[in-house]
């Protein structure tokens, strides 16, 4: 997951929500994006309101037993469909062997 994309989606949701920076709901949304989930039994009403609000805004927050959660697919879907931007192409992660080979090739040249 591209952190810039995740940050843009978080900022878009926070600004569209209209919540005050010091409010519990604002902090709950920040926690949802930083951890990826929020346990609902600590503050059930706030968590469920956040989930409903996010769904209205187009972010399909999932409900699993006692948590609300988001994953990479949800963020990418929101980024492309609601914000209207194309998700950047991800480069495959290099293995340790490939990184060592690249370093050696640079030193040889």
Q: Could you explain the architecture of this structure?
A:
This protein has helices spanning 3-17, 24-35, 44-57, 72-83, 96-108; strands at 37-39, 62-64, 67-69. It has five helices and three strands, in the order ααβαββαα. Strand 2 and strand 3 form a beta hairpin. It is elongated and about 60 Å long. 61% of the residues lie in helices and 8% in strands. A three-stranded antiparallel sheet has the order 1-3-2. With 109 residues, the chain is mainly α.
- The amount of helix comes to 55-70%
Largest sheet: 3 strands, antiparallel
Based on DSSP secondary structure assignment, what is the total number of beta strands?
3
Task: Strand order, main sheet: write it out.
Answer: 1-3-2
Radius of gyration (Å): 18 Å
Poorly predicted sequence stretches spanning 5 or more consecutive residues = none
* Terminal residue distance: 33 Å
Beta-strand fraction estimate? 5-15%
Order of helices and strands: HHEHEEHH
Give a brief rundown of this model.
This protein has 5 helices and 3 strands, in the order ααβαββαα. It is mainly alpha-helical and 109 residues long. The relative contact order is 0.15.
Task: Please describe the structure with a list of short key phrases separated by commas or semicolons.
3 strands; mainly alpha; three-stranded antiparallel β-sheet; 5 helices; 109 residues
